[in-house]
């Protein structure tokens, strides 16, 4: 009995240790692809700041903004809709700062999954990666299903599309199939397989068309507003008909219009100068999106009183009310291009996350293969496209779209936690392959050093001290320091660091937690089932196939000596 109990206890301890084992922060001895690089080709280093901005803006500005304007203004914000977008943009910027630091410091494919693996542990990283797979698959399918109705509107009506791409209902099954959605997913998948630079250039052109449509709304709508005296702002109820609370509720609703900039972080291995370009790409993309959202909302709520807005087609109806019905065609083109660009942004990150998880041994090595000609993870891309295309063809995934928000918010929260850990309790143990055991033994180092209590106390002290330092500062002083911080870092081309730590990551965690709490129970039930499936996959495959399964942990300060000792022994 003692032997059995000891064996069970050992298995339990081993299982717990597997959940908290962490990867090495990228260093001179370990590049982003580590051991996988020796047997597979590298991703192409082809992206610069303009490419990253195209990916970020294209992935973020979807067709939702063409509808959100009317819904949020009517039900929550009123003429204060612009302030709702501003507040939501500031909240998104908190997550963007955290992403920028980690993307600059740990430039590897995998995004939030990779950061969680380095800072928190394998168990949490697996759940984040599993949630991101769900997010991008359902997100891509939902976007693809939304393109065909807009194309039909553009060409004259619901029945204007050719029969082979129009929606059909399967008799007896009550299933509406969408061939157009599946075809578009497969086309985008093929484009992504050609190469990262080529697909990004196409996404840039599509995004430019969308931005031009939004600029038309701003310019033409501004002209009409000045001509008519901005009737939407001349209301007896003032700018806040629903009060400040309504404006904040509106901000929490439009926050999801800023989701997408995290796609930039997934391309970290394909950026020529990731330490400088990734933070700039994320920052510029989010700034452009926030500016466009605010200007469009300011114009539209000024053209039409908020209570008279059409909740389905607010922008087209606003122009039609002033006699410019032909503007609907430009707006529909903008919506179509926005959806196409968002579809590309949804299908781009998932293959790289699958590749990163396969490199770490948590998924089969099939997903880690990189094509030697296109330097793209073609197998993962094709798998992603087939799954998303099948869902888009057969399923109306609108009911599942809330699950996308859960995956995104979980990732945002974990990225903010990772910044705190990396700043205050950085991993001081480095995993090395078991082949280094001889060198480690020859130098007399212990393979495990537990410093959790000291690290936790240091973290608590730092959080308390940082909160006290920032509590007394005024908003203008904080903004001044933030601008100076960003200016100095971009001018000096240094590795980006998130400002106002720990206050900023803590605020990010609180905002994301609030949004997660307000997501419906039915959505949480679906997400829980998906995560439970992920736990089973990890327990029966990922845990035992992990590249860290037989790793030896050594103090980070002695890594160079161990490498030198290993070389001398060889």
Automatic annotation (TrEMBL):
MF GO annotations: transmembrane transporter activity
The similarity annotation says:
Belongs to the amino acid-polyamine-organocation (APC) superfamily. Cationic amino acid transporter (CAT) (TC 2.A.3.3) family.
Record the organism. Answer: Nicotiana tabacum
TM ranges: 49-69, 81-100, 112-133, 176-196, 208-226, 238-261, 282-306, 326-348, 400-422, 496-517, 523-541
Q: Which Pfam families match?
A: AA_permease_2, AA_permease_C
PANTHER family in the record, alphabetically? CATIONIC AMINO ACID TRANSPORTER 4, INNER MEMBRANE TRANSPORTER YGJI-RELATED
Q: Where is the Cationic amino acid transporter C-terminal domain?
A: 496-546
Q: What does the record say about its membrane topology?
A: Multi-pass membrane protein
Provide one Gene Ontology cellular component: membrane
| Keywords, alphabetical | Membrane, Transmembrane, Transmembrane helix, Transport
Alphabetical list of InterPro entries matching this protein: AA/rel_permease1, CAT_C
Q: Where in the cell is it found?
A: Membrane
Q: What is its main location?
A: membrane
Q: In which domain of life is the source organism classified?
A: Eukaryota
Does the record carry Nucleotide-binding as a key word? no
What is this protein's record name? Cationic amino acid transporter 2, vacuolar isoform X2
């Amino acid at each position: 009995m003692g032997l059995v109990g000891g064996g069970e206890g050992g298995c339990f301890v081993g299982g717990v240790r597997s959940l908290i084992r962490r990867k090495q922060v990228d260093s001179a001895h370990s590049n982003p692809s580590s051991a996988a690089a020796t047997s597979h080709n590298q991703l192409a280093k082809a992206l610069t700041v303009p490419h990253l901005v195209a990916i970020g803006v294209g992935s973020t500005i979807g067709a939702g903004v063409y509808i959100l304007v009317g819904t949020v203004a009517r039900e929550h914000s009123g003429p204060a809709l612009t302030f709702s977008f501003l507040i939501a943009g500031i909240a998104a910027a908190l997550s963007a700062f955290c992403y920028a630091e980690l993307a600059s410091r740990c430039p590897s494919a995998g995004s939030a999954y990779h950061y969680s693996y380095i800072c928190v542990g394998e168990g949490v990283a697996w759940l984040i990666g599993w949630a991101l797979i769900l997010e991008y698959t359902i997100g891509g399918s939902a976007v693809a299903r939304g393109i065909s109705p807009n194309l039909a509107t553009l060409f004259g009506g619901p029945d204007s599309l050719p029969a082979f791409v129009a929606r059909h209902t399967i008799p007896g099954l009550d299933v509406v199939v969408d061939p157009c959605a599946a075809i578009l997913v497969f086309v985008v998948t093929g484009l992504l397989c050609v190469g990262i630079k080529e697909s990004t250039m196409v996404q840039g052109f599509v995004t430019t068309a969308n931005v031009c449509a939004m600029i038309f709304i701003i310019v033409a709508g501004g002209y009409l507003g000045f001509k008519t005296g901005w009737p939407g702002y001349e209301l007896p109820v003032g700018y806040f008909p629903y009060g400040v609370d309504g404006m904040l509720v509106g901000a929490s609703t439009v926050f999801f219009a800023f989701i997408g900039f995290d796609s930039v972080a997934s391309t970290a291995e394909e950026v020529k100068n990731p330490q400088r370009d990734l933070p700039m790409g994320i920052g510029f993309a989010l700034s452009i999106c926030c500016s466009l959202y605010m200007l469009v909302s300011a114009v539209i709520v000024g053209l039409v009183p908020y209570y008279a807005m059409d909740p389905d087609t607010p922008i087209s109806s606003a122009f039609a009310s002033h006699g410019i019905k032909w503007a609907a065609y430009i707006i529909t083109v903008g919506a179509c291009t926005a959806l196409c660009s968002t579809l590309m942004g949804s299908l781009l990150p998932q293959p790289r996350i699958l590749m990163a998880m396969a490199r770490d041994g948590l998924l089969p090595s099939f997903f880690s293969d990189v094509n030697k000609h296109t330097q793209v993870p073609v197998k993962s891309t094709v798998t992603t496209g087939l799954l998303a295309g099948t869902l888009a063809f057969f399923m109306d995934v609108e009911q599942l779209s809330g699950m996308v928000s859960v995956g995104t918010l979980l990732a945002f929260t974990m990225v903010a936690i990772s910044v705190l850990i990396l700043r205050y309790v950085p991993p001081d143990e480095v995993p090395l392959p078991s082949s280094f055991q001889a060198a480690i033994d020859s130098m007399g180092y212990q393979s495990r050093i537990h410093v959790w209590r000291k690290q936790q106390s240091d973290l608590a002290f730092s959080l308390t001290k940082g909160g006290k330092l920032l509590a007394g500062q005024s908003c203008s002083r904080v903004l001044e320091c933030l601008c100076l911080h960003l200016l100095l870092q971009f001018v000096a081309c240094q590795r980006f660091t998130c400002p106002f730590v720990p206050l900023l990551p803590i605020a990010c965690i609180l905002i994301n937690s609030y949004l997660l709490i307000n997501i419906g129970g039915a959505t949480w039930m679906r997400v829980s089932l998906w995560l439970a499936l992920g736990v089973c996959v990890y327990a029966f495959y990922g845990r035992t196939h992990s590249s860290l399964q037989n790793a030896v942990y050594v103090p980070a300060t002695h890594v160079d000596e161990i490498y030198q000792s290993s070389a001398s022994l060889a």
